[in-house]
Amino acid sequence: MHVADREQHDVLLASVVALRAELAALRLPLRLDAGGAGDRATSERIAVLDQLDDYVVPRLTQLEAPLLAVVGGSTGAGKSTLVNSLVRAVVSTSGVLRPTTRSPVLAHHPDDERWFADQRILPSLSRTSGSGSDPGGLHLVAEPAVPPGLALLDAPDLDSVVEANRDLAGQLLAAADLWLFVTTAARYADAVPWEMLRSAADRGTALAVVLNRLPSAGADDITHHLAEMLARHDLGDSPLFVIPEMGLTDDGLLPAEAAEPIRAWLADLAGDAASRAAVARRTVDGAVRSLSRRVATIAAYADRQRVAHAALERALDASYETAYTRVDEATQDGSLLRGEVLARWQEFVGTGEIFRGLEQRLGVLRDRVTDFFRARPAPEAQVTVALETGLEAVILDQADAAADRAQAAWAALAGGPDLVGDDPAALATRSDDLLDRTARAVRDWQGYVLDLVREEGQGRRTTARFLSLGVNGLGVALMVVVFAHTGGLTGIEVGVAGGTGVVGQRVLEAVFGDQAVRQLTDKARADLRTRVRSLLAHERSRFDQRLAAFDVDPEAGTDLRTALRRVEAAS
Ligand SMILES: Nc1nc2c(ncn2[C@@H]2O[C@H](COP(=O)(O)OP(=O)(O)O)[C@@H](O)[C@H]2O)c(=O)[nH]1
Ligand SMILES: [Mg+2]
What we know:
Blueprint: H1 3-25, H2 37-61, E1 67-73, H3 79-87, E2 105-108, H4 113-117, E3 127-128, E4 138-142, E5 150-154, H5 163-174, E6 178-184, H6 191-202, E7 206-214, H7 219-232, E8 240-244, H8 256-271, H9 273-330, H10 339-349, H11 358-375, H12 379-412, H13 416-420, H14 424-427, H15 434-456, H16 464-484, H17 495-512, H18 514-549, H19 556-570
Parallel strand pairs: 1-5, 1-6, 2-4, 3-4, 6-7, 7-8
Antiparallel strand pairs: 2-5
Bound molecules: guanosine-5'-diphosphate and magnesium ion.
């Protein structure tokens, strides 16, 4: 090879290796349309990887390695018999019982053993030799009758009833420098082999066709028809060998002279390095050319993965953001101050006396507080409990609603059903520990509010007003004020809730001053928001984990196309 050729060759090899790495790293976890484009892209990714590993990379790495001629075709066409006949020894089992070729046989010249004994090509198949044979392995046989520089591989039936055999046949053919396609008068029009031949033509694989067991009756018509079919499939240049129907030797081989034209043709192709390189180069170039379309299909599907993943994430965001917003609204629009809370609060502060002079109010309050402390559980404690229950209920409801929305959205989105899994009902409700965690969070928040009041009261403890209500009473007032705020409005114009809040507001302002009350309210609300956020974040983490398990690299499609362009530029 010339220096410039060598350099170009190295660039091509490096770019193919880089493309292979992108493909290997690619994850296509979301099933976007089972049975359709998704399955095609997924299997194409594996097929391309196999072809790069089994053929393109090893061939580019060692252009001088012997040619691998893979003998493929339909069941009972005489593939194994042909391989044995070319080698002049029974190296591969032939017969009418199926499946015969379990562990494919690779026959090579003894001098060429080193090329096949290691995992250079077909690295996924373990090697066996001698009498051992490992299903799923590759059985190596050294035979002096095999032309040096060429190996013959007897592939399983392309139309095998065993799926693993069909897959293996496809994989072996993708690893071939050269196909020897064996068919018969009865089978040559079968659909399956022609699909394989079409993909061989697409990939520019060098090909020879063997029409085996041709009966003398109608021989010309059949040969003519087959030649026509080959031409129609852009395979008109491929040599066509015809073997008439004849008896086999006692060993089950074709008579030597019947196999001779094929043997001679193979020996000629493999005979000198330049001819070998020309065959290999043609097949490599074809394989590299075929990457464009195949990798583009895979990259397009990777793009769709990204889009689908983003849609799943957006649906999840929206579900929980709505929950957060609704909890937030409920803590501001006064709706928490109805029912039990309102009753307890009114019990605490009295009713219908809001517009009395504050000093007088406070006097009344002090008396009531004192009474309550003496007689029964502190009234502010009852308000606290009522608030706690109300707030918990809102959070739990919204957590249920968010889970239900997220589950339903996922079930309806592309790729979503796998994320939902087989217990949609469990996913569609709040998690088991939410009740405990919410109760704790609400109590912690109430503790925080009391701390706020306590801190604010430092230095004011001596004031009669502070003392009259105490930290607990003022804390409850602050909680009520937090829940009563409606768009910054406080007062009778916002109705019962506002009216309820107004008492608290007045009380707090009388003790701390209005500026301090604003700050306390803001702090208390901010803290509550943080706690609600964190509760809901923990709630959605179940969904996040599922989403993470189906994570896709958003750059994958672009990276694949970039790697592909480098290969195209180098070839
Ligand atoms: N008479 C005759 N029998 C053949 C010929 N080629 C294959 N057979 C028989 O056909 C059967 C299937 O052949 P085999 O080589 O196992 O086919 P494979 O499935 O393509 O490997 C075996 O029983 C062979 O002995 C041939 O050219 N002439
Ligand atoms: Mg066979």
